[in-house]
Every structure is written in C-alpha cells, then in structure tokens.
Amino acid sequence: MKPHRHFERWAPLLLLAALLVLWQVLVLAFAVPEYLFPSPWQIALQMAEFRGPLLAASWSTFWVTMVGFALAIVVGVLLGFLIGSSRTAYAAVYPLMVGFNAVPKAAIVPILVVWFGIGIGPGILTAFLISFFPIMVNIATGLATLEPELEDVLRVLGARRWDVLVKVGLPRAMPYFYGSLKIAITLAFVGTVLAEMTAGDSGIGNLIQTAGSQQRMPLAFAGLVVISAMAMAMYELFSAIEKHTTAWAHRGSQAE
Amino acid sequence: MSAATDTAFLDFRNVWLAYNDALLREGKFAVEAIDLQVRRGEFIAIVGPSGCGKSTFMKLATGLKPPSRGRVAVDGQPVTGPLKISGMAFQAPSLLPWRTTLDNVLLPLEIVEPYRRQFKAKRREYAERARALLAKVGLSGYEDKFPWQLSGGMQQRASLCRALIHEPKMLLLDEPFGALDAFTREELWCTLRDLWTEQRFNVVLVTHDLRESVFLADTVYVMSKGPGRFVVKRDITLPRPRDLELTYAREFTDVVHELRGHIGAMRKAGAEVAQ
C-alpha cells in the first residue's frame, strides 16, 4: 500500500518529466526549427535569459488578475446571494446572466478598449467578467438547494428568512463557493491574458504577442509556461483553502 | 364531553386545506373536514397510505400553513403563525454536517426566543442541558462528533434531541424511524417512550408502521387518501408502561390487525375507484 501511495504522489511529476524528454527527443530527431516549435531546453534557456522582463510581465498579469478576481468574488457572491435567496430574483436575473455569460469575452475586449483605452483597465474588467459567473451560480445553487424539512424545522421555531440564510444557507454554500473559486481563478487568468494580447501594454499576454510577432517562439512559449504555472499555483492555493475550511464536505477523502 | 373539549390542547374544528387558490376553486383539498381534540400530554399517531395528507396535517398543527376553512387552536389559542412551542423531526435527520452533534442540538436555542437573546451569555448552561439530553438518548461521548461520523440511528436520536432542546409542548414526528433497520427502530421507540413518559409533552406521530403506532400512542387515527380525512379513531388502552415484549402479545397484535383491516378496506375501495 505504502509504495503505491508514494508513486501516486509523484506520478504527475514523472509524467511531466517523461513528456518533456519525449518533446526534446522529437524536436531533436526531426530537427524542427526553433521558430516553429522550440524544444523544452531552448524554452528554459530563454526563461533564464529573459527572467527580468518575464518577472515584470508576470507580476503585472498577476495583480491585474487578482484585482479582477476580487471584483468577481464580491459581485459574484452578492448576485449569487440575491438570486439564491429569492425565487423572484432568480427568475428575473438568471436567464439574463446566462445570456450574458454566453457572449464571447474576446468580443468584448475591443469595446472595453474604446471605453478604457489601452492598459490595465480592459485586463481587470475582462478577468472580472469571465470569472464572476461560476461564483455567482455556485453560491446561488448552494443557497437554493436547502432541504425543505430543515427549513420547516427552523421556521416553526420562528426563524426569519435571514436566520435560515445565515445559519444554514451560507455554510451550506461554502463548499460550492470554494469549488467555484478554483474554476474562476483559472478563468480570470485567461481573461487577463486575452485582454493583454489585444489591448495591453504590459503583462504576459503582451509579451507573448510581441514575441510571437517577432517570431521568437521560445520566448512566447516561456510566457505560456509562466502563465500556466501561476494559474496552477493559484488553483492549488484555493484548493488547499477549500479543504481546510470545509473539511466536512470532503469526508469521503478523509475517511480512512 | 364539552368540558373535555374545552380544555383540549390541540383542537381542530372542521379544518380544510387546499394548497393554493386554484385548487381551492376546483374544490381539491389536501385534507378535508378534520375534527380532532387532543388532551394535554396525549400521544397520538396518524397512520394511512402515502400521500393521504399526513404531512399536511403536521403543517396545519404547527401553523406553517393556515387552514382554508375551519379553525385550529393549540393550548387554547387560535393558531395564526408558526408555533414556537413545537419541535419537529423528520425521516431524514437533516443535521447540519458542519456542526458537531452538540452544536446541532443547540441550533434551536440560537433561533427561538427567549433563548436566542441569552444564547451568548448562557451558552455553557445550554450546552450542559444539551449534553444531558444527549445522554438520555444514549449519545454521551458523541457530542463532539460530526453527524457523518454517526450511524443513521444515532443521527435520528440527535435529531430528536434537536426537536426537544427548547422544551416544546408539542412534538411533531413525520415518519421519524422510517429509514432505520427494524432493531434500531425498536430501540428508538423505547427512547421516545421514555422521553415522553418523563416529560409528557404532546406528540403527533405520523407513521406507516402500525406496530409503531400501537406501541407508542394513546390514540391512533387512520387517515384515508384523496381526500385526506380521518376515518377511524382507535383508543389504545394497552397498559403503560409498555415494553417491547408487548408487541408479541395477543391483545397488541389484535389491535394491529384491526387497524390493518381498516387500511386494507380503504386501499381496496381506492383501487375500485381508480378502475
């Protein structure tokens, strides 16, 4: 049992290493030119060489994403609370939100540029627009799926709607909420990079765009590596927060 | 008789309920012409086929639903809104998984007055009370466990404690033991019997299980389906205290058979109507 556990833990890293080796071997074997498809080694060299600009760009992308994501949490929670706690609000708001969410965010960026100009404004807003929806839906679902029996138990005691929401609804919605944060944070990074590519003057998206137009593929790939590493780190962070704050909802994985 | 009905604790006078106005206009009632007088401290059971309006009856008795016609009074007062002197438990224990057993039992005290106001100040005292109650139903040592660490029977015991912690005058139970295995169920019958014997609150027990109703109740009402009406009232005169051995005695099984007969006849009549 124990060595198996050990293997499971390291399996993703082993797979990553194997893929990198395979990639390197294939690029070398078929002599793929660098400007088409760089090898992992070339990417690593570029990362080392341009670590200054890469760090600056990552930092810019990171905080723009975080501001957009923070907005998404505030708005998503408020809207989710509203439509999850009232049937009328649910009926009125939900279809609109679904329609809104269906709009491709890439199509909104040019409009945002008109309104806010080139810079961080479109980045923050795109990150926000793309990531608030899952948060809202999950909060609303958590609130709306309350057991009717439990509501009766509390209502007969004279519980007001607010009591039921605070004592039962919100704690119940927490696992949904943290689950949605994991999804939303990766989406927020997508939003920021998207905006940076079309309307940015900084950030990883801008860097990738510039590198691509100069046919410096290893640098563009280095940008991709950095952005996915950031998104993954944030995903893991929220995953850890989720496990620690709502352990009761993950009892399956803890029961041993 | 009139003196007895004047002091009835739970008093239904010709009560009808349709769930909404459209159903009311069509004359489709969930329960019809309910007349019922329950003494203070009496244990009644309501048996009947699924969907006969037993749960509707509970909503009426607790004031969660106002009647479309007729009058409901509890403890001499007309029922106009949710009755805080009642506690409820259902087939699903519906404990909150993020609270320990103790905190689950304390939940009503965080909501119902006058406890609510004093909850922060008297938390320690209330926790002691909850522990004592949990001990009574055999859950000492499990106060700090989470519901998902308890068996189904234990969860249902905790659910009973939650229904009783604010010392309600009336306990409403909607098939509370329906999802338990036979042995656990009989254990819980005894738990409920003992709690009731000690505290003498009123109990309204809704159940499918005729043996359960006869074992526990003073009076069993049989409800018919569509429309939901009380068709039979059977006083259970078996001596108390009753213990599980009684359920194998002749006088016990005779009563169960008799009730079974009523329900069988009703089902047959229902089937003929359906055809």
Short description:
The complex is a heterodimer of chains A (256) and B (275). With 256 residues, chain A is mainly α. Chain A is 85% helix and 0% strand.
Q: How would you characterize the overall build of this protein?
A:
- Chain A has helices spanning 2-29, 40-49, 51-85, 87-102, 105-116, 120-144, 148-155, 161-199, 203-213, 217-245, 251-254.
- Chain A is an all-alpha fold.
- The model of chain A has no long low-confidence stretch (mean pLDDT 88).
- Chain B is α/β, with parallel strands linked by helices.
- Chain B has a domain at 1-85 and 202-275: Rossmann fold (3-Layer(aba) Sandwich).
- Chain B has helices at residues 2-6, 21-26, 54-62, 101-111, 115-136, 152-164, 182-199, 210-216, 250-274; strands at residues 10-17, 31-38, 43-47, 69-74, 77-78, 86-90, 170-174, 202-207, 219-224, 229-235.
- Chain B has a 6-stranded mixed sheet with strand order 6-7-8-3-9-10, sandwiched between helices. A 4-stranded antiparallel sheet of chain B has the order 2-1-4-5, with helices on one face.
- In chain B, a hairpin with a 4-residue loop joins strand 9 and strand 10 (229-235).
- In chain B, helix 4 runs parallel beside helix 6 (152-164) and helix 8 (210-216) crosses helix 9.
- Mean pLDDT of chain B is 88; it is low at 1-5.
- At the A-B interface, helix 7 and helix 8 of A face strand 6 and helix 4 of B.
Query: Greatest interface and its residue counts?
Result: A-B, 21 and 29 residues
Strand content of chain B: 15-25%
Helix percentage of chain A:
over 70%
Q: Provide the CATH top-level class of chain A.
A: Mainly Alpha
Q: Assign the CATH topology of the domain at 1-85 and 202-275 in chain B.
A: Rossmann fold
